[in-house]
């Protein structure tokens, strides 16, 4: 049973959200600590209420980490999707303190989640497990859930803003800092919390037993957050912690923190039954009847054409209409010539190795199965009268022919190119850029439509992190074998000699290829920005319609004006207008 899904749905109204910049908040709900906790389920509901907020909050992180990077774009389309230039500013790294939007939502959302966690942590410290029928081990696990979740929120804030306050109490604000603390303080807090949490959390003891733990932090989940922290320590605090990253990653792969294995299919960790996938280390449970925040416009629902419902057969899905917010950054100019950028061009990056299963046209195969990840070319479907039709643009009268290029194609034949050769974010249409479906869009008739849980951490992240650590130490062969242990599932057996990294195949691995492989395996999984920063490419790199930044201050986001105005103790991040 997906415990969190049902608990979270029943816990609405448990407590008010605490403002992120005014930490001296009151509990506006009339249900206070002294009379709320009456049953075992009351305790469980309280613990998992912050998890629902956490699930919702993935949207702002996704926008900031993908649209500011080189793989995903939001161009204008027949006049759609300009929105005052907010998506261009993300792409060009021209955001400012007045932008508000997703950076403000990320700051506020994470601190709201932290304060919810603090509230529950302090409540549970006053309760006795015997009173509610918990064993000491069960109760310690529940208390630790919110500590691990709080560390997850802090890791996101460290990643996005670097200079943040430290708030550890809901009831005693004197324990919280009014001003920002050094990034090393936050780093140490996260590290210590996760190390303390590890022995108190449950452990996935056998393969095939993950469904009972989905939505809960486990030992492997906490350890995986340490891997994330250590892998990026050079970015966050200027310290090389690759050895620590490797040590924790190796322990996870040995099974010290639970039983996990790489799935045989690339899409298994995203499919409707991914709660049973042994590759998933931590995920947020979801389904149509409850929460499904990854099936929202700011994440994956708007990664396809506006009228894709005809192609998928999901016209009645609760996610509403699709839209074209996201597409893959183009590989070709408007004469059909391949660009020569080192970065971006994700479709061409996939094309580099022949036979990639992910490169197939996305199709629903029936019986809750699919193939392929991308949508391109003509998208044909059979209408209610049995006629074969093509998906069309939402307002202009042309059939879509989706291209790995950005321009005004309108109804041009596939082998034709437009006279206007300006390819930029201001000059696209609904044919511009390949679309993608990481999570399946099953039809209305499919009983598992929108049943996929959101996969936050999966085992290949640990494998790739360890591979990068080994590559940086000069252990190229060991790194290659680790990457190959995941990559071999993406290609037919007859292609493996060509596509696997040496010494198991002919492909060559170096740091540039390591970054490219991060981009393939974790395409559109809300992490591209930090990978570019870690490899020194985010502010200095060039990709489609993007030149290098004037400075490195863009590697963290500014603190937005409303946040500064609400707390005069905060200081603006370096490089931004105060």
Question: Features of this protein?
Answer:
single chain; 578 residues; mainly alpha; two-stranded antiparallel sheet; globular; disordered N terminus
Radius of gyration: 24 Å
Beta-strand percentage range: under 5%
Overall SS class: mainly alpha
> What is the chain-wise order of helices and strands?
HHHHEHHHHHHHHEHEHEEEEEEEHHHHHH
Number of helical elements: 20
Secondary structure: helix percent:
25-40%
Q: What is the terminal-to-terminal distance?
A: 50 Å
Spatial order of strands in the largest sheet: 1-3
Structural write-up:
The relative contact order is 0.14. α3 packs antiparallel against α6, α8 runs antiparallel to α9 (183-197) and α15 runs antiparallel to α16. The chain is globular and about 70 Å long. It is mainly α. It has a two-stranded antiparallel sheet. Strands 2-10 form a two-stranded antiparallel sheet. Strands 4-5 form a two-stranded antiparallel sheet. It has 20 helices and ten strands. It has helices at residues 3-10, 33-36, 40-56, 58-67, 86-92, 101-124, 129-132, 136-160, 183-197, 219-231, 233-237, 242-254, 309-312, 346-351, 459-472, 476-487, 496-499, 511-521, 528-534, 561-566; strands at residues 72-73, 280-284, 327-328, 363-364, 370-371, 374-375, 380-382, 388-390, 435-436, 454-458. 36% of the residues lie in helices and 5% in strands.
């Amino acid at each position: 049973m997906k415990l969190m899904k049902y608990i979270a749905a029943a816990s609405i109204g448990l407590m008010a959200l605490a403002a992120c910049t005014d930490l001296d908040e009151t509990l506006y709900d009339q249900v206070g600590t002294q009379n709320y906790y009456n049953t075992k389920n009351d305790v469980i509901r309280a613990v998992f209420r912050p998890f629902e907020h956490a699930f919702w909050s993935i949207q702002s992180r996704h926008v900031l980490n993908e649209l500011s990077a080189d793989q995903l774009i939001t161009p204008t389309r027949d006049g759609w999707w300009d929105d005052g230039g907010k998506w261009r500013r993300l792409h060009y790294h021209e955001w400012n303190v007045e932008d508000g939007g997703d950076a403000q939502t990320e700051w506020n959302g994470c601190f709201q989640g932290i304060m919810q966690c603090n509230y529950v942590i302090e409540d549970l410290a006053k309760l006795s497990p015997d009173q509610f029928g918990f064993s000491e081990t069960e109760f310690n696990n529940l208390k630790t859930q919110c500590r691990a979740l709080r560390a997850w929120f802090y890791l996101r804030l460290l990643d996005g803003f670097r200079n943040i306050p430290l708030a550890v109490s809901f009831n005693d604000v004197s324990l919280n800092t009014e001003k920002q603390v050094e990034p090393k303080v936050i780093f140490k807090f996260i590290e210590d919390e996760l190390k303390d949490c590890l022995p108190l959390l449950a452990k996935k003891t056998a393969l095939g037993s993950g469904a009972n733990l989905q939505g809960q932090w486990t030992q492997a989940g906490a350890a995986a957050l340490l891997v994330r922290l250590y892998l990026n320590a050079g970015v966050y605090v200027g310290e090389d912690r690759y050895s620590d990253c490797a040590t924790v990653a190796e322990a996870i792969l040995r099974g010290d923190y639970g039983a996990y294995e790489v799935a045989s299919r690339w899409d298994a960790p995203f499919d409707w039954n991914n709660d049973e996938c042994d590759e998933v280390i931590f995920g947020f449970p979801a389904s149509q009847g409850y929460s499904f925040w990854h099936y929202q416009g700011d994440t994956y629902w708007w990664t396809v054409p506006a009228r894709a419902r005809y192609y998928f057969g999901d016209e009645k899905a609760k996610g509403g209409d699709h839209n074209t917010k996201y597409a893959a950054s183009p590989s070709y100019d408007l004469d059909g010539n391949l660009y020569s950028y080192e970065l971006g061009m994700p479709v061409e990056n996939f094309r580099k190795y022949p036979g990639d299963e992910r490169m197939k046209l996305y199709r629903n195969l029936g019986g809750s199965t699919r193939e392929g990840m991308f949508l391109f070319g003509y998208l044909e479907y059979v209408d209610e009268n049995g006629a074969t039709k093509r998906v069309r643009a939402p307002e202009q009268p042309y059939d879509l022919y989706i291209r790995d290029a950005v321009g005004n194609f309108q109804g041009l034949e596939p082998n034709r190119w437009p006279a206007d050769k300006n390819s930029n974010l201001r000059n696209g249409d609904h044919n511009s850029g390949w679309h993608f479906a990481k999570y399946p869009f099953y039809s209305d008739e499919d009983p598992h439509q929108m049943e996929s849980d959101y996969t936050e951490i999966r085992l290949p992240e640990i494998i790739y992190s360890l591979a990068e650590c080994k590559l940086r130490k000069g252990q190229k062969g060991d790194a290659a074998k680790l990457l190959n242990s995941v990559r071999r599932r993406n290609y037919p057996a007859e292609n493996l000699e060509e596509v696997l990294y040496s010494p198991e195949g002919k492909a060559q691995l170096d740091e540039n290829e390591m970054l490219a492989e991060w981009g393939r395996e974790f395409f559109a999984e809300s992490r591209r920005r930090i990978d570019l920063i870690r490899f020194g490419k985010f502010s200095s790199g060039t990709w489609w319609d993007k030149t290098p930044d004037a400075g490195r201050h863009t590697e963290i986001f500014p603190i937005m004006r409303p946040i500064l105005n609400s707390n005069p103790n905060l200081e603006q991040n370096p490089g931004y207008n105060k």
